[in-house]
Design goal:
heterodimer, A: about 150 residues, mainly alpha, about 60% helix, about 0% strand, flat, B: about 500 residues, two-stranded antiparallel ribbon, 2 strands, about 75% helix
Chain lengths: ~150, ~500
C-alpha cells in the first residue's frame, strides 16, 4: 500500500525537477538581448495604452451580484419544473406552486431592496462631487458611496 | 430519522428567523422616510427573535436527525439555538443603543446580524461535513461585512480585509481536511466517520491511512480553531475586535465562538469517539490539550501589556477559548456539560464587558480613568463582568471555571493534572490585567476633560440586567446546570 504512494511521490519529484531542468537548459542555450520593445506589455498586438492595474468601477461587481438573483432563480426552478408533473399526479400540485412562489418571493424581495435603494441606476445621485475620498464619517454613509466614472 | 414534514416542523425556529430577516428587509425599504424607523426595525427584530424562541420551545422533543441526516436535532443543538437567540437579542439591543451604527443603516446591520445568527444555529446542528462547511461560511460572510461596517474608518477596513483573507485561508484548509476525511472514511456524515474509523481500526490500518487521518483532522481543526480563535489561528482576533464596531464585537466575541465549540464537540466527540481513548491510535486529547495550553498562555500573557480595552478583551477572549478547549480535550460528558455551562456564563459577562466599553465612549484605558466618579453604574457593572471573567467568587465565572477544572481533574492522569495547573496559573495572570482596568476605574482620579459619562436609562437597565444574573449565577447556578444536564444529549 505505501508503495503505491511512492509512485505518486516519484512522479511529483520528476515533474517538478523537469520544469527546473528545462528552464536551466533554456537559460544556458538561449541568447539574452532585451530591448524596450520586447519588454513592453503584450496586449494581443494592440498598442498598450496604460497600466492594467487600476481600480475598476465597483458598479460592475454590484450588477454582477444582482444578476446572481436571477441566475439562482433559474437554476433552482428548473429541477422543480422537471418533477412537477409527478407531484401533480401524486396530488401535491398546490404544494409545488406555493413552494416555488415562496422561493421566488424571497428573490423578488432582494431585487426590490436593491431597486429601492437605487443600486440599479448606473449613475447614482450623490450629495458631493465625485470622486471624493471619505475621510470623516459622512452624515449618511448609505447615500454617499463613491462612484468612479 | 425524520421525514421531510417532520423535519420542517423541527426546523421551525430557523424558518421563523428567515422570515424575520425578510420582514426587516421589507420594513427597512417601506419605512425609509419614517422618523421612527430605528425603533420599528429593532421592534421587528426582537419580535422575530421572540417568535423564534417560541418556535424552539414548541418544537417536539426527542432526538432525531433532519433532512436526510444533514442536521442533528438533539439537546446540544437546542441548547445552543437558545443561546444564539439570546445573544442575537442582546446584539439587536446593543445595536439599537449604539451610536457607531448610523440610524439609516440600522436595517442593514440587523439583516446581517440575523443572517449570521441563522448560520450559527445551522452550525450548531450540522451533522454532515458539507452542511458544516456551508453553515460556517454563512457565519463568516456577514462577519466580514459587519467587521468593515464603518468602511470609512481605516482600522475597520483593515480589520475586514484581514478577516476575509484569514477566514478564506482557514476555511480552504478545513475543506481540504474534510476532503481527506471523506477519502479515508468514505462518508461525509460525522456519525458515519466514527463507524468507519472503528471498522478500519479492527481491520488494521496501514501507516499511510493513519498519517492521512492525522493530517485530515489537523487540517479540519484549522477551520474550527479560527472560529474559536485558538492559537495558532488567533491572529485576526485582536485586529478585528479593534476595528469592528464595538457593538458587533460584543456579539462576535461570544456567539460564533460558542458555535465553533458546538461544532467542535460534535466533530470530536461524535465523529472520533470520545477523544480520550485515542481514536485510530492518535492522542487527540493530548493534541487538544497542547493547543489549549498555547491558547490560554498566549492570550493571557499578551493581554497584560495592552492599553486598548478592546484589544485587551480580545486577548482575554482568546484565553477564555483556551480554558474551554482544555475541558474539550477531556471529552467526557461531564466536560461537555462544563463547556456548555461556562459558555452560558461567558455570554453574560463578555457581552456585558463589551457593552460597557461601548457605553464608556472610548476604548483606550485612559477613557476609563476615574469611571467610579463619572458613572458609578457603569464602573460597578464593568467591575462585576471583569472579575467574573477572571473567575473570582462569588461571580458566575468562578462556578464556570470550577466545573471546567473539576472535569479536567476527574480524569486523574498526569497530563491532565499538568493541564489544570497551567490553567490555574493562567487564571492568576489574568487577574492582573482584569484588575488593571478595575484599578483605573476606581483608584485613578478623573482628570480634567474627563466629564460625566452619559448613559441613557435603557442602557443602564440593560447593563444591570446583564450584571444581575452574573452575580446570581455565582451563588445559585442550579437552574442553568439542570437545564444543561437535560440538554446535553448528543446524537451518536
Amino acid at each position: 500500500m505505501p508503495f503505491d504512494f511512492a509512485v505518486v511521490l516519484i512522479f511529483l519529484a520528476v515533474s517538478a525537477g523537469f520544469v527546473w531542468a528545462a528552464m536551466f537548459v533554456g537559460k544556458l542555450v538561449r541568447p539574452h538581448r532585451p530591448d524596450a520593445q520586447k519588454l513592453q506589455t503584450y496586449e494581443c498586438g494592440e498598442r498598450p495604452i496604460g497600466a492594467a492595474w487600476y481600480n475598476f468601477n465597483p458598479r460592475f461587481y454590484l450588477l454582477a451580484l444582482v444578476f446572481i438573483i436571477f441566475d439562482v432563480e433559474i437554476a433552482l426552478t428548473f429541477p422543480v419544473g422537471v418533477v412537477a408533473r409527478a407531484w401533480v399526479e401524486a396530488g401535491h400540485g398546490l404544494t409545488v406552486v406555493v413552494e416555488i412562489l415562496l422561493f421566488v418571493a424571497v428573490l423578488v424581495a432582494a431585487l426590490a431592496y436593491v431597486w429601492g435603494r437605487g443600486d440599479l441606476n448606473w449613475v447614482r445621485d450623490l450629495e458631493h462631487e465625485a470622486p471624493l475620498p471619505p475621510v470623516e464619517p459622512p452624515p449618511d454613509a448609505a447615500l454617499t458611496r463613491e462612484v468612479h466614472s | 430519522m425524520a421525514g421531510t414534514t417532520e423535519s420542517l416542523a423541527r426546523f421551525a425556529p430557523e424558518l421563523v428567523l428567515s422570515a424575520t430577516i425578510l420582514a426587516i428587509l421589507i420594513v427597512d425599504l417601506i419605512a425609509r422616510l419614517q422618523p421612527k424607523r430605528p425603533s420599528l426595525l429593532s421592534g421587528v427584530a426582537l419580535v422575530g427573535l421572540s417568535a423564534m424562541a417560541g418556535a424552539l420551545w414548541l418544537t417536539p422533543t426527542g432526538d432525531t436527525s433532519l433532512f436526510t441526516h444533514l442536521l442533528a436535532f438533539d439537546g446540544l443543538a437546542r441548547y445552543f439555538k437558545g443561546f444564539f437567540i439570546l445573544a442575537a437579542a442582546l446584539g439587536v439591543l446593543f445595536g439599537h443603543l449604539s451610536d457607531e451604527i448610523s440610524r439609516s443603516r440600522l436595517g442593514e446591520y440587523y439583516i446581517q446580524l440575523l443572517c449570521l445568527t441563522l448560520g450559527l444555529s445551522l452550525l450548531a446542528s450540522a451533522q454532515n461535513l458539507l452542511m458544516l462547511y456551508l453553515a460556517l461560511e454563512l457565519v463568516s460572510l456577514p462577519s466580514y461585512v459587519l467587521s468593515g461596517f464603518r468602511w470609512w474608518d481605516r482600522r475597520a477596513s483593515e480589520a475586514a480585509l484581514k478577516y476575509v483573507v484569514f477566514g478564506g485561508a482557514a476555511s480552504g484548509v478545513m475543506l481540504y481536511g474534510f476532503s481527506l476525511i471523506y477519502g479515508i472514511t468514505g462518508t461525509l456524515q460525522i456519525d458515519g466517520v466514527a463507524a468507519a474509523l472503528t471498522a478500519a481500526a479492527t481491520g488494521g490500518q496501514g501507516i499511510a491511512g493513519q498519517l492521512g487521518l492525522l493530517m485530515a483532522v489537523m487540517l479540519s481543526l484549522a477551520g474550527f480553531g479560527y472560529k474559536v480563535a485558538a492559537v495558532p489561528f488567533h491572529m485576526w482576533c485582536p485586529d478585528v475586535y479593534e476595528g469592528a464596531p464595538t457593538t458587533f464585537v460584543a456579539f462576535l466575541s461570544v456567539a460564533p465562538k460558542a458555535a465553533g465549540f458546538a461544532a467542535l464537540i460534535r466533530f470530536f466527540v461524535v465523529g472520533f469517539g470520545q477523544p480520550a481513548p485515542g481514536a485510530a491510535g492518535f492522542p487527540w486529547a493530548e493534541i487538544l490539550g497542547i493547543i489549549a495550553i498555547g491558547t490560554m498562555t498566549l492570550g493571557n500573557v499578551v493581554a497584560v501589556t495592552q492599553d486598548n480595552v478592546k484589544r485587551l478583551l480580545a486577548y482575554s477572549s482568546i484565553a477564555q477559548a483556551g480554558y474551554l478547549i482544555m475541558a474539550l480535550a477531556v471529552g467526557t460528558d461531564e466536560a461537555i456539560r462544563a463547556v456548555m455551562l461556562y459558555l452560558g456564563f461567558y455570554l453574560l459577562m463578555n457581552m456585558g464587558a463589551f457593552f460597557g466599553v461601548q457605553l464608556a465612549g472610548g476604548e483606550r484605558l485612559s477613557a476609563f480613568r476615574g469611571m467610579a466618579s463619572r458613572n458609578a453604574t457603569l464602573a460597578i457593572t464593568m467591575a462585576i463582568f471583569l472579575f467574573s471573567l477572571t473567575g473570582i467568587p462569588p461571580f458566575a465565572g468562578f462556578i464556570g471555571k470550577f466545573y471546567l477544572f473539576a472535569a479536567v481533574l476527574s480524569v486523574g492522569e498526569p497530563f491532565f493534572y499538568a493541564l489544570a495547573i497551567i490553567g490555574v496559573l493562567n487564571s492568576a495572570i489574568s487577574l492582573y490585567y482584569y484588575a488593571k482596568v478595575v484599578r483605573v476605574m476606581f483608584l485613578d482620579k478623573a482628570e480634567e476633560g474627563d466629564g460625566v459619562v452619559e448613559v441613557s436609562r435603557p442602557a443602564s437597565a440593560l447593563l444591570l440586567a446583564l450584571a444581575g444574573p452574573t452575580l446570581l449565577f455565582g451563588v445559585w447556578w442550579a437552574p442553568l446546570a439542570d437545564l444543561i444536564d437535560k440538554a446535553s444529549s448528543i446524537l451518536r
